[in-house]
Design goal:
Number of helices: 6
Low-confidence stretches: none
Distance between the termini: 38 Å
Structural class: mainly alpha
Number of domains: 1
Oligomer: single chain
Number of strands: 0
Helix content: over 70%
């Protein structure tokens, strides 16, 4: 009975730790969402890509790559995003 209790406590601790470290706000930062949401014309995309110039942010790098490959076939864009996601992981 004691091993079951200990593994349950450890499992609960892991779930709580993951919920704090993988918070939605931390991964999907509101400032990036707002910048991408501000795109109204095709000319704005270049400005957004330049504004997103900060390195070392996984979500930011995926957004940047997806914007740089705009206008290509959907499957090609999807493949590029998946590849970039694998590199970031």
């Amino acid at each position: 009975m004691i091993p079951l209790l200990l593994t349950s406590v450890v499992g609960l601790a892991v779930v709580i730790e993951r919920s704090f470290s993988l918070r939605r706000r931390r991964i999907l930062r509101p400032d990036i969402i707002n910048v991408v949401g501000s795109i109204e014309k095709p000319e704005d995309i270049e400005n957004v890509v330049n504004d997103l110039g900060r390195p070392n942010d996984a979500f930011l790098n995926i957004v940047r790559v997806s914007l740089q490959h705009r206008g290509r076939p959907r499957e090609e864009i999807k493949e590029v995003i998946v590849d970039q996601g694998r590199q970031e992981a």
